[in-house]
Amino acid sequence: MLTKVAQEIHSLLLKSGKKISFAESCTGGMIQKQITDISGSSSYFEGGFVVYSNRLKTKLLNVPEELLEQHGAVSSECAVAMVQGLRKATNADLCISVTGVAGPTGGSVEKPVGSVWFGFYFDKEINSVYQHFEGNRTEVREQATLYALKTVMDYLRS
After folding, report:
1. CA torsion angle for 13, 9, 103, 135 (degrees, to 10)?
2. 108: burial class by Cβ within 10 Å (0-12, 13-18, 19+)?
3. To the nearest whole number, what is the mean pLDDT of the chain?
4. Pairing relationship of beta strands 115-122 and 125-132 according to DSSP bridges
5. What is the pLDDT of residue 137?
6. Can you give the residue range of the structural domain that contains 118?
7. Which residues, including other chains, have CB under 8 Å from residue 105's CB and lie 6 or more apart?
8. What's the mean pLDDT in 87-112?
9. pLDDT value at 47 more than 90
């Protein structure tokens, strides 16, 4: 399923001429791997970041430390700040950020395992979306990857 969606994105991005980039935390580069597994992706994939630590979210994407202290890394605010930093760094037409709790540890009552926030920069607008995924660590990461890619595909089809 992931490969099929990535292949569709490949075709749509080639037709549109748009560039894309990603900032990933809990998915650890899985989204970028799906994109770069396809030959020719260099014509639209600008690059991205795997920013697992808060230190790198701040250093590479300019996510304010105060924001992380106040809201945490798994938050709408962090997803938005990540996608803003990503846009500034890559100047891509489409920018996507992902931050969440893949588990099995790290969850809390407020942010249980499977909680994932996405930041999307499409059409010069930024939106954040929350999703909760069930399953083990691998399943949560795969579902988050698929959700991000399907959202990109749906946007490009519209």
Report:
1. 160
2. exposed
3. 97
4. antiparallel
5. 97
6. 2-157
7. 113
8. 96
9. yes
Give pLDDT, residue 2.
79
Give the number of domains in the chain: 1
Average pLDDT on 69-97 reads 98
Q: Is 47 left (phi over 0), alpha (psi -120 to 50) or beta?
A: left
Nearby residues of 30 by Cβ (< 8 Å), 6 or more positions away: 24, 141, 142, 144, 145
C-beta of residue 13 within 8 angstroms of C-beta of residue 157 = no
Can you tell me the distance from the alpha carbon of 65 to that of 46, in angstroms, rounded to the nearest whole number?
26
- The pTM score is 0.97
The domain that holds 15 is classified in CATH as 3.90.950.20
Radius of gyration (C-alpha) of the chain in whole angstroms: 15
Output the pLDDT for position 107. Answer: 87
| In the predicted structure, residue 1 carries a pLDDT above the cut 90 | no
Strand bridging mode 94-100 / 45-50: unpaired
Nearest CA to 49 out of 32, 65, 36 is that of: 32
Amino acid code (one letter) for 148:
A
pLDDT at site 126: 98
**Burial of 50 per CB tally in 10 Å (0-12, 13-18, 19+):** middle
